Amino acid sequence: MHSSPFSRRRAIQTLFCSSAALALNVRPDRLAAEVAKEALHLLMIGDFGTGSANQVKVSQAMQKFMAGSGIKPAGLLLLGDNFYSKDKEGFSTQSKRWTTEIEEMYPAAVFPGPMWAVLGNHDYHDNLGGEKVQLAYAQKEGVRWKMPAKWYRFDLGPKDQPVVTFLCLDSNLPAVSGGKDKKTGQPKPHMSAEEEKAQLAWLKAELEKPRAPFTIAVGHHPLYSNGSHGDTKELIAQWEPLFQKHHVHAYLCGHDHDLQHLEMAERFTTHLLSGGGGASTRKLPGERKMPFGKDIHGFTHLQITTEALTFTHYSAEGAALHTVTKKLDGSFAVG
In which order are the strands placed within the sheet that holds 292-294? Predict the structure, then answer.
């Protein structure tokens, strides 16, 4: 779908009004969207794999949300940094962490659908070969963990007429996730230059193919962020032109340990950051004006209909913090 000058102006006006409302201290917890049971529903979290009390708290909030809304989720979107810290017993597909931090943390009784996951920097850095373990675990029979490759596509909705196409990407480019470890001085693991080239060719090809009415890209590192890591210039240079040319409706990510919603003037794509899944939160030092940003633990609910994508950030206490609705034509509205 193409964005008209009107829809771009409307988006800019919406962004201005949203910023003004926040400046006037309008209660964001009054901006929760009505949950439509006939819609497709997913919950997303990033930066969660700590096994900490905060991860447990966010998980419990997600479970309570499911129980209170009476909806059945289509699945979970796991936005990277799925496992933090070195596994002292050796990280493998048999590690206890798969049970305690994944299977039991997000129980199948509440979340029976797939867990579509992408790789974060800690998934490469903290356990040597950790990214390969996560790919291998997805091959085990009966698991909900879905990572068929470092980059992959899935579509949701009726088989003959899907509503949304997801393009899941590995954002750990050499220039993004490489360099040397400050403690050991050793090179940090990351995807290879050959993989970066292959992924980019795949992304271009997928965007040229027939897709559902809505397209969502998913990665770990943000293109734009007011958080402690800031913008990722390499991803802006490589992915942003493709997102705009092919009208990708939203980019979902984590990496910064907070919850954000960003809109770039005259750009089609909405940026949602959900990095409050369990790791310690960090302040947002960036000064870019945006509809929402808060250093808080929480999760994000995505509601999908044929007319719109509706994203709502929730705190670990279950409070609705911010809602944005994205239309087919690229326009968006807050609240």
Answer: 152-156, 164-168, 214-218, 250-253, 270-274, 259-263, 292-294
Binned at pLDDT 50, 70 and 90, residue 38 comes out as: confident
Contact predicate 195/203, CB 8 Å: no
| H or E stretch covering 245 | helix 233-245
Q: Going along 63-194, which residue ranges are E strands? A: 75-78, 115-117, 145-146, 152-156, 164-168
Are the beta carbons of 191 and 170 closer than 8 angstroms?
A: yes
Q: Which fold has domain 5-29+40-334?
A: Purple Acid Phosphatase; chain A, domain 2 (3.60.21)
Please state the rounded mean pLDDT for residues 221-242: 98
**What are 194's two structure tokens?**
């050959």
259-296 pLDDT, tens digit each? 999 999 999 999 999 999 999 999 999 999 999 999 99
- The set of residues, in sequence order, having a beta carbon less than 8 Å from that of 149 and lying 6+ positions away, is 135
Whole-number pLDDT of residue 60: 98
Distance CA 335, CA 325 (A): 8
Rounded distance between C-alpha atoms, residue 79 and residue 275, angstroms:
8
Q: Helix or strand or coil: residue 313?
A: strand
Separation CA 325–CA 164 (nearest Å):
15
For position 20, what pLDDT does the model report?
A: 34
83 conformational bin, left if phi > 0, alpha if psi -120 to 50, beta if neither: beta
Tell me what the pLDDT averaged over the chain comes to.
Answer: 91
Where exactly are the structural domains of the chain?
Answer: 5-29+40-334
- Residue-by-residue DSSP string for 50-71: T-SHHHHHHHHHHHHHHHHHT-
Task: Write down the pLDDT at residue 33.
Answer: 60
What is the β-pairing status of strands 320-327 and 332-334? antiparallel
